[in-house]
């Protein structure tokens, strides 16, 4: 049962007896007296009127104070409140078509819970990225940042509902691991009771084990990459959802990924259109220069079927677009951008050369130079959001791949066991949450897609 938060002590009875309303639900209280609990976002005065913009985390509303309704002390106090002061205000909810929410509050009561200092560091003027990141704990209170985090939360719910409704079982995988999933150059190493351990790059190997027990599983949690990269697509700590299913081939992986992305787009479009519009309305000149589609229009285009290209076709298209990429090369960020700008919906690139994919990727029986792998590239230059494919299910072939990549055999004994005891074709993929949020919101960098981003040069706040 949902419980309202307890009111502060000494709350005047004239306010404390009123129902607590959240701004997002304010339309349910038209012409009623309510109390709102939140923070002062902005304030201006005009003669005998104070206009207080109050936010409560769910929205923003204007509370209008008329001098005749307050004693001199309270009215004077309101005239000296600073941004982010914590307030409880009471009043009657009035319909006002001029207001962004369609309502305003005719204020008749004010309680200052906590008066903010006068030097709130983030002002309406332009601030540099470094300054904003140093004050991320306060920057989060801005309207654009709260909108982004609400979209992120909706995407997380969409992902969980998608897999839960398809009887995929959520299985949590270790953060501390004894071995690398995709090589050893990008691992965070730590001491684990006098043993060498690493922060997980991926839960995939463990998910393969649980898929052999439960059939269809997914893991959803933080992963870590020690890449010395400062690109707009990389964080050192990020969240990833990784489904894995027994008896799933490459086409099954593609179909599952396509359905997931279409579901995410539809859910955000239905439930977070207001947030998308707000993000569109608060863009810097640099962002506007990118000429992105309005986000609602962009998401409306995310319909099946997506474009599917063989790797060789992708290379030919890129060469025709002026890239110097050659067959056998991996697609870089610039190549992904060139390719995705040719389409208005995601692209699946299939069957990459085996030499540029991880050791566990199954080779294509029809062409062993290729692997049964796939990447999904998001449109508008956002690039790879999903990577996956069919896993190698033959014991001898996988053992040879481990040897070829000079990986420690003992670290993968348990993984090889999966090919000894009831091995079956199986596959899955990983979707990077922050990249997906950046694409859905039309953001230039993943640093705004998570509350407290971890970058190569940033560990605080």
Fold blueprint:
Blueprint: H1 13-16, E1 33-46, E2 49-55, E3 60-66, H2 72-78, E4 86-95, E5 103-114, H3 129-134, H4 136-139, H5 143-165, E6 169-170, E7 176-177, E8 189-192, E9 195-199, H6 204-214, E10 216-224, E11 237-246, H7 250-271, H8 273-281, H9 285-289, H10 295-300, E12 307-310, H11 311-320, H12 333-340, E13 347-350, E14 363-364, E15 367-371, E16 373-378, E17 383-390, H13 395-404, H14 413-420, E18 426-432, H15 433-441
Parallel strand pairs: 3-5, 6-10, 12-13
Antiparallel strand pairs: 1-2, 1-4, 2-3, 4-5, 7-9, 8-9, 10-11, 11-18, 13-16, 14-15, 16-17, 17-18
Write structural notes for this entry.
- By secondary structure, this protein is an alpha+beta fold.
- Helices cover 31% and strands 26% of the residues.
- It has 15 helices and 18 strands.
- It has helices at residues 13-16, 72-78, 129-134, 136-139, 143-165, 204-214, 250-271, 273-281, 285-289, 295-300, 311-320, 333-340, 395-404, 413-420, 433-441; strands at 33-46, 49-55, 60-66, 86-95, 103-114, 169-170, 176-177, 189-192, 195-199, 216-224, 237-246, 307-310, 347-350, 363-364, 367-371, 373-378, 383-390, 426-432.
- The protein has an 8-stranded mixed β-sheet with strand order 6-10-11-18-17-16-13-12, with helices on both faces. Strands 1-2-3-5-4 form a 5-stranded mixed β-barrel.
- A hairpin with a 2-residue loop joins strand 8 and strand 9 (195-199).
- Helix 5 (143-165) packs across helix 7 and helix 5 (143-165) crosses helix 15.
- The chain starts with 12 loop residues before the first helix and ends in a 20-residue tail after the last helix.
- The model has no long low-confidence stretch (mean pLDDT 92).
